[in-house]
Amino acid sequence: MLIFTLRRLNLFIFTMLALTLLSFSLSFLFPGDSIINISGAINATPSQLIEIQKAYQTDDNIFWQYIAYLKHIIQGELGISMASQSEISTEILNLLPATIELSLVALFIAMFFGIPLGFIAAIKHNKPADNIILSVSMVGYSIPVFWLGLLAILIFSINLGWLPSAGQISLLFEIKLITGIQFIDILLSDSPYKWQAFSDATLHIILPACVIAVAPATIFIRLARTSMIEVLGTNYIRAASAKGLTFQQIIFRHAIRNSLIKIIRHVGLQFANLVTIAMVTEVIFSWPGIGRWLIESIYQRDYTAIQSGLLVLSCFIFIVHILTDFIYAALNPLARGSKYGS
Amino acid sequence: MNLLDIRNLSIELIGDNQNILAVDKVSLSMKEGEVRGLVGESGSGKSLLAQAIVGVLNDKWHVHADRFHWRGIDLLRLSIEERKALLSRDIAMIFQEPMACLDPTTTIGDQLAEAIDASSLTGFFWQKQKQRHSAAIKLLHKVGIKSHSACLNSYPHQLTEALCQRVMIAIALARRPILLIADEPTAAMENTNQGQIFRLLSSLNQLKSMSILLISHDLENITHWTHTITVMYSGQFVEAGTTEQIFRKSLHPYTRALVNSSPSANFHLPAKSRLMTLPGSIPILQHLPIGCRLGPRCPRAQQACVKAPSVTNFHGHKVSCHFPLTPIKIQPKAVKGVC
After folding, report:
1. Contact A170, A200 (CB under 8 A)
2. pLDDT band with cut points at 50, 70 and 90 for residue B330
3. Taking a C-beta distance cutoff of 8 angstroms, is the pair B34, B227 a contact?
4. How many CA atoms lie within 13 A of A1 on its CB side?
5. What residues have CB less than 8 Å from A198, skipping those under 6 apart?
6. Exposure check for chain B: N or C terminus, fewer CB within 10 A?
7. Which residue of B100, B103, B174 is in closest CB contact with A258?
8. Measured distance CA(A123)–CA(B197) in Å, rounded
9. B12 touching A, CB under 8 A?
10. Long-range CB contacts (< 8 A, 24+ apart) of A229-234?
């Protein structure tokens, strides 16, 4: 297990290095002066500019420039935004938790509905239930998310008036920012209206999270279905039924765990897709997350923000990917131990 | 009374265009405490027959039988659930690849514990858990695994094939079955391990008077362990009798060819001469010959062989051939179909 952890850490470090290399090269590829792109100081006086150039070691060769850039990143200095002239790192710290919250809730909704539905479809293979679930998942996968989001607002917020259409929480509640994740902040706060705020935040997250969850859920349905069909055809399931276990016992004790192993790795892969969908959805639902901020900075040609936003977002996706790998190892004894010849 | 009595069992593979009769009217009967070998080339439907008896074939296969009695109970009259409950209580099966038949993500201990019959346990659930554990340890001791705690805590991929097969036997023994169906239990195993497994099975047969249906493609290897043998070819019944009858006085050309193809039956054969074999190979399921399926390969085939022969019984030595090899001295009363 230790070796497994070290391997993942190793992978993490090297991937992060590659990502920083990419974001560093972006500052040269974007139009304009590379030092301004990297620091975001568009209004700097000549003397300040010299300071910045010294800090980023622009006189040295490209390798030392990269090392200087890395040093800045490690110290948490991502430059200032070209558009608002505020520190990018503080902006990201304020915005990223909202995105983490939204995308994780969406991921859980997608898994909670997608995987069991896929299992049901596999158990009822080639029966009407299977066909219905498959066609519904096909429809769900084909709907573009921006249209679905607008449709959801139209139906549930405007026509029915059940759910709020925008924002993270009603402006009436004043919640102090501690961790940035709204639900935890609400629980930590000592406001007398804590539980009202909590239910209001829940109402706000339902619609965007469901809209994001639709496409991944349909993918999970298909993944769960194929893996369950595969597992149900294996010898150990046949042996278990010869052992005298009932069908339910076979499903719950043996089939589900084995098919989850096959799915869980794809969950990590699908998460990148989910975050992309979340970025679009954040714009539609004016969710104060990093996705909306990133799209706005693209509109404003805020190169410094784009660079750092990409870096942080991909880092987050990669961390989730590694976490799913750990869950995979916990479920699968074959992945845990040391392997020979691999 | 027969333990198991199956008459004319057919297994059909349901296809898109046509149905294929993979097993064609095979009869099989077993007595209490008997070790019966079921022998045939690969692809002769032995495993299918065994899986049909236990009832673990999937929907693609359609099973039909004229008679299916288990200890005098007509199973065909029971509903599917009742039949499954009865059979899973009394019949246990071990499979060809033991490693693939154990759930790779569950420890051996859990898989062994869940096979133990819940009705044999008493008390509350925490007591039951303890009883299950000790019963699992006892089962491992029965099949000759001494380091039980190491075995219980390991996963299938951490054990050898032979150990896995022992675990499979332990799982099979958990319900104290009356009949154990062993489907090529020693395939892909070394000779020493093969001997261990066979010795274990035969000691179970002698000590617990458990009947065993031993399926193998290797006639010579299992003759030491079996009392009676049934030979199948390409899904058809060939010959059944005691091991002595099959080995010494085989009546069917196919059985004779099987016996002759083993080196130990051919001591007198001069050095470097070829072993006796039948020409050709077993037909594939899509192109089964009509009548006696051995027809195209049989040295004694004649025109009559395009019709499937009926089973003839010579003092418990049953053979299904139009032209059996050794003419029988005493005039047999040829009983057709049933005996």
Report:
1. yes
2. very low
3. yes
4. 8
5. A183, A186, A187
6. N
7. B103
8. 36
9. no
10. A229/A122, A229/A125, A230/A259, A230/A262, A231/A255, A231/A258, A231/A259, A231/A262, A232/A122, A232/A123, A233/B58, A234/A258, A234/B100
Hey, is the C-beta of B154 within 8 angstroms of any chain A C-beta?
Answer: no
Burial class (CB in 10 A: 0-12, 13-18, 19+), B36: buried
- Render the burial of A139-167: b for 16+ CB within 10 Å, e for the rest: ebeeeebeebbeebbeebbeeeeebbbee
* Partner-chain contact B92 A236, CB within 8 Å: no
**For strand B211-216 and strand B35-39, is the pairing parallel, antiparallel, or unpaired?**
parallel
Give the H or E element holding residue A270.
helix A256-284
Amino acid present at A237: I
Nearest to B105 among A241, A249, A333 (CB): A333
Range(s) within chain A of domains with CATH label 1.10.3720.10: 92-336
Q: What's the gap between Cα A181 and its chain centre?
A: 14
Cβ of B114 within 8 Å of Cβ of A332? The answer is no
pLDDT band at residue A218 using 50, 70 and 90 as cut-offs: very high
3-state secondary structure of A266: helix
Q: Is pLDDT at A93 greater than 70 in this prediction?
A: yes
pTM given for the model: 0.79
Q: Is the dihedral of CA B273, B275, B276, B277 positive or negative?
A: negative
B306 pLDDT above the threshold of 70: yes
Tokens of A183: 């639900």
Is residue B67 within 8 angstroms of chain A, CB to CB?
no
Strands (DSSP E) contained in B40-103 are 61-64, 67-70, 73-74, 91-94
- Residue ranges and CATH numbers for the domains of chain B are 2-226 (3.40.50.300)
Q: What is the pLDDT of residues A62-91, one digit of tens each?
A: 888 888 888 888 887 777 777 788 888 888
pLDDT tens profile B138-161: 888 888 888 888 888 888 888 888
Q: Which of A76, A132, A46, A123 minimizes the C-alpha distance to A315?
A: A76
Label residue A301 left, alpha or beta by phi (over 0 means left) and psi (-120 to 50 means alpha): left
- Name the architecture of domain A92-336: Orthogonal Bundle (1.10)
Q: If you average pLDDT over residues A275-300, what whole number do you get? A: 88
Please name the residue of chain B whose CA is at the shortest distance from the CA of residue A262: B105
Distance, in Å, from the CA atom of A321 to the CA atom of A125, rounded to the nearest integer, reads 31
**Rounded to an integer, what distance in angstroms lies between the CA atom of residue B128 and that of residue B206?**
31
Which tokens hold the place of A199?
A: 């239910």
